[in-house]
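Issue: ligand-bound run for MTE - logging full I/O for the record.

Environment: standard queue, default settings, no custom constraints.

Inputs:
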Amino acid sequence: MTGSTESEASYDRRRFNQWWAGRARAEGVARRDILRLAAAAGLASTLPVGLSASRAGAVGEGVAVGEGVTVGEGVTVGEGVTAGQGVTAGQGIVKPLPPELFTLHGTNAETRFEALADTGFTTPVSHFFVRNHTRTPRLDAAAWKLRIWGDGLTGAGRQFTLADLKSLPPVTRTAFVECAGNARSFFRTLQNQPVSGTPWNTGAIGTARWRGARLSDVLRGAGLSRRAVDVMPRGLDDELVMPDGTNYGRVRRPMPISKALDDVLLAYEMNGAPLPPDHGFPVRLLAPSWVGISSIKWLGDIEVSTTPLYSPWNTDFYRLYGDAYPPEGSAPLTRQTLKSAFELPWNATLSAHTRHRLTGRAWSASGAVTRVEVSTDGGASWRPARLHDHARRGSWTRWSIPWTPRGSGPAELLCRATDSTGRTQPQTTTHNTQGYLFDAVLRHAVTVRA
Ligand code: MTE
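Outputs:
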C-alpha cells in the first residue's frame, strides 16, 4: 500500500468507494474535493447530480469557522502559505532567524543551502528550516498528553504522557524532513511554468538524528484492532483559517496503517536534545522518506479508524494537478523524490585559474544515493563527484569535486544524482500546478572573475 504510485492510486480508489458507501469520513473536506475524488474513483458519472451534491454538502457541514489564526491575503495552503497582509515574514517562529542562515517566506523560514557547508552530516537546529501553517505553539511538556482514540482500537483508547513514551524501547533514526514543495521555484525559473505556493529554493530540507518511540508500539499499547486501516495524527497548533473565513481545522493528514506500523516514530529528541519548540516540542511524528506534511508536529491526538479518513491535507493539497494529471489530481503524495544541490550562493563569484572545492548534498527517498556527477560546461560533459557519506534511503550524502575555472564571465554548474533504484535526476520535471516534487537537474548560475 505504501509502495508504488499504482498501489497508492488503487488505495485511493478503494478509500473513495468506502466513503461513498458511508464507511469513511471526510472531516473538513470541501465539497469540490469530494467531487474531484469521485471523478478520481471513476464514479462521478454514476452519481446523480443532486445526490452527489447533497452527500458532498453533508461532508462540508462539519466545517465551522471558529477560533484560529487567520493567515494573510495572497495565501495558498498545501505548504504554500505566503506572506501577505497581516503576516510578517518569520512571524510565529521562536528561534532566531539570522539572514545569513535563513530566507523568510511568510510563516516559514528556508535554510540557505550554502549555510549547510559549515555544518556536518546532520543539520543543527540553528540551521533547520521551519514550515508552519500558522505559528509555533508553546506547550507544557508536564501537562502534555497524547490521546489515541477511534473505532480502530479494541477498547476505549489510551492517553500517553511523555514519560510513558520514554518508557517504551527508544529508536534512533537519522532522516531528512523535506517539504513536498522544496525547489518549487525552479518550475518558474528553469522551466518557465507557473506554480502556486511558497517559492522555496533547495532549503526546505534538513536531516536530523531523531529519537523516540515507535508509533507501532504506541498503537499496539493502545489496543490496535486488526480492522484498523488509517490513522490520522493531528497537531496542537492553531486551526488554519483562510482570509475568506474557510476554516480547515487543525493540521492533520491521514496515513495508511501499513506506513504507521512500518517505520514511523513519535520523536521527542532531535540531534540529542529535546525537540525545540519550532520542530514539534514535545513530540512530533517522523514519517521517514514521506513528504514533510506527513511528519505532524506538536502531536495532540491520533485517530485510529476502521474506515478510510480524509482531511484537506490529502484531498485538496498534496496531490498533483495539471495538464499531465487527471482533472481530479493524482493519488495523495507519499514519498519524496531524488535531488542534489550545490552548497553555493546563487550567482556566487569564483576566481578563474584557482582550484575551488565545490561541495553539495544529494538525497533520495527511494534508495541510497550511489552517484553524483557534476558538469561545469553547461551539461556537455560530466565528472563523478566524491561521496563522503554512506547515504541510506531517506537520508543524504555530502559530496565534493574540485574545479579550476579557465575562462571568465557567467557560467552554469550542474549536478545530478543517481540512487540505488537506478533512477537519475531528469532534465525536466513534469509540471504540476502546486509545484510539488521538483526533481530535475538544477542549473546553478555563477560568475567567473578573471
Ligand atoms: N505539523 C503541524 N502540526 N503543523 C504544521 O504546520 N507543517 C508540516 C509538517 N508538520 C506542519 C506540521 C510541513 S508542511 C512540513 S514540511 C514539516 O512539518 C516541516 O517540519 P519542520 O518545521 O520541523 O522543518
